[in-house]
Design brief:
Blueprint lengths: L4 E4 L4 H12 L4 E5 L2 H5 L2 H10 L3 E5 L9 H4 L4 E4 L12 H23 L4 E5 L35 H17 L5 E7 L1 E3 L10 H11 L10 E6 H13 L5 E5 L2 E4 H12 L13 H12 L3 H7 L9 H7 L6 H14 L4
Parallel strand pairs: 1-2, 1-4, 2-3, 4-5, 5-6, 6-9, 7-8
Antiparallel strand pairs: 8-10
Helix pairs in contact: 1-8, 5-6, 9-13
This protein binds NADP nicotinamide-adenine-dinucleotide phosphate.
């Protein structure tokens, strides 16, 4: 892939890892953010500028402002669209906070890409949440593992709005891709963990690990299960997808399934001596129903459809088509805890 490459969301948890790897691979990057002047002054961005000089160029881009990505797209050949809010609790207005930035934002970014006329490849950060909504959804299928052929049909604005924002945005991207000269590839990560490059903590990924270590779950964790993946592997998958001449379609990006207790046990093994409040047990079901709505806005419908139900994923496509070799989640969690400690976030 020739430079420059446009990256949206490069100021976030996953996006900052993509940005670092793009620059390390020699790309010139058009980084968009809502406030480029503020971004330029962040310590971690200054470090990247020191190392890579004018290969990093700053542009303004707001998902909710029509045409605001036009300038960044000029002359670019590749686009990685990673910007989208990742929030699962304290949501007051799901349409405004999640659905509109995801769906209208995707439309807005892709319309700017069309206008530029030079974009050959688009890599969209979708999610495993576009593949399934609730763990129980697997019972609707003949298979016992989720794969690229599955689509989330159970989420809505009222039930799992973040997942609904992701499936709606991915559908919008495929619809807009019809008849266009640019190729679209989606990366569909599970729950991402591992060290951040950006010094911020608003992503749900970071909040969960902070919560595990600082005592938020000290009386126990809900019996919830996710597909887990390292942030560095997800970033690499985006870049390999941009460069691949043969990769097509959707790519589930999950290393292995884990329960919240598995995550807690791994943190306990790796860094538990420093963080004695790391959870040691699963909360009984009845207690989860009682405290769930206060713990993380878990509704009873969400708990009924997810509690105690493991999820499994077929990750063979991404290994074969992009050659991804997954980092062990033990290492991801250890490195993540160390980075949070170094950045004073614990
Ligand atoms: P994050 O740290 O909160 O980053 C979100 C990014 O989106 C930030 O760069 C933010 O830019 C940008 N953004 C949000 N609203 C915007 C708006 N209105 N206009 C322009 N930019 C906006 O979250 P993350 O965890 O890295 O998530 C990044 C992507 O990965 C999202 O698409 C998410 O759905 C996807 N994903 C994440 C996970 C996970 O476990 N973390 C799993 C699967 C998929 P600002 O600097 O302007 O705030």
């Amino acid at each position: 892939m020739k430079s420059p490459v446009v990256l949206t969301g490069g100021t976030g948890y996953l996006g900052s890892n993509i940005l670092k790897q793009l620059l390390e691979r020699g790309y010139t990057v058009h980084l968009t953010s809502r406030n480029p002047d503020k971004s330029k002054n962040k310590g971690w961005i200054k470090e990247l500028v020191k190392e890579h000089g004018d290969k990093l160029k700053f542009f303004s881009g707001d998902l909710m402002v029509d045409g605001s990505f036009d300038e960044a797209m000029k002359g670019a050949t590749g686009l990685i669209h990673a910007a989208s809010p990742f929030k699962i609790d304290k949501i007051k207005d799901a349409k405004k906070e999640l659905i509109d930035p995801a769906v209208e934002g995707t439309r807005n970014v892709l319309t700017s890409a069309d206008k530029a006329g030079t974009i050959e490849k688009v890599v969209l950060t979708s999610s495993a949440a576009a593949v399934y909504g609730d763990a129980v959804d697997i019972k609707e299928h003949d298979e016992t593992v989720f794969s690229e052929k599955h689509w989330n049909t159970s989420s809505s604005i009222a039930h799992q709005p973040y997942s609904y924002s992701k499936v709606s945005a991915e559908r919008e991207a495929w619809a807009l891709n019809k008849g266009k000269s640019w190729k679209l590839i989606t990366i569909n990560p599970g729950f991402i963990v591992g060290p951040a490059v950006a010094e911020r903590s608003d992503s749900t990924s970071i909040q969960l690990i902070i919560g595990m270590l600082n005592g938020r779950f000290k009386s126990g964790v809900p019996d919830l299960h996710f597909g887990m993946v390292d942030v560095r592997d997800v970033a690499k998958a985006h870049i390999l997808a941009l460069e691949s001449e043969t990769a097509e379609g959707r790519h589930i990006c999950v290393n292995e399934p884990m329960s919240m207790l598995d995550i807690a046990n791994t943190l306990e093994k790796e860094v538990g001596d420093k963080y004695p409040k790391t959870p040691k047990k699963t909360l009984p079901k009845w207690l989860t129903y009682l405290v769930g709505p206060f713990m993380a806005d878990f509704t009873w419908r969400f708990l009924r459809n997810n509690l105690g139900i493991p999820v499994y994923f077929d990750n063979s496509k991404i290994k074969a088509s992009l050659g991804i070799e997954f980092t062990s989640i033990d290492k991801s969690l250890k490195d993540h805890a160390e980075q949070l400690e170094e950045d004073g976030l614990l």
